[in-house]
Amino acid sequence: GEKHWIWTFTTPTETFFVIRKSRRTNVLREVLTRRFKGIIVCDGWKPYARFTKRLQRCWAHLLRESKDLSEKFGEAIPLHEALKDLYESLLKALENDPPQEVRKHLWNSAREALQHWTLKEYSEAKVQKFIGKIRNGFDYWFTFIINPGVEATNNRAERALRPQVVLRKILGTLRNDKGTSIHERIMTTLATWGQRGLNCLQMLTEKLAS
Predict the structure, then answer these.
(1) What is the distance between the alpha carbons of residues 139 and 37, in angstroms, rounded to a whole number?
(2) Which residues pair with 96 in a beta bridge?
(3) Which of 50, 96, 145, 203 has the fewest CB atoms below 10 angstroms from its CB?
(4) Which residues touch 155 (CB under 8 Å, ≥6 apart)?
(5) pTM above 0.85, yes or no
(6) Residue 204: Cβ within 10 Å count
(7) Is 182 helix (H, G, I), strand (E, B) or coil?
């Protein structure tokens, strides 16, 4: 009956799961440590910004929310279209890995374009709240432009979480700390093997036989 949270830390070649009672910054400090100097691609959950300023906010979340608003409020339609066009134009401009001076120009232009839409007047409270989210994370929307290799969305982590959601529906709950720890390790291992193109059944059989 105690609520826990699945945290997913993923790179192109590795995935690491931990299950904790907390959604706070202490989990980030535990897993990544204070020595972490990388960039976190994440949603807008506040503990990330308390842990580091080296963030990339997820554009998939942003566009999904703007689309939902555009389907309910007419004033959000041009806003959603502008965000979608901006995102797609940036991805296209970065396809051929331009030099840093070009990236810097794109970064400045993108910030100006986004700021233009955040300074407009909106009458709907939910649209105003959405604009507030954009403003609060303004410094984190375009990290991917300046830093090659940083993705604009946290879709990889979202995909890694889906099997856990399915398992939760099948298993219901984990009953004790030992079972939780075993689950973390097995899921971490299977996910990482899968990312590396390895046969999970074959790898598991070899490990158990060794």
Answers:
(1) 17
(2) none
(3) 96
(4) 58, 60
(5) yes
(6) 15
(7) helix
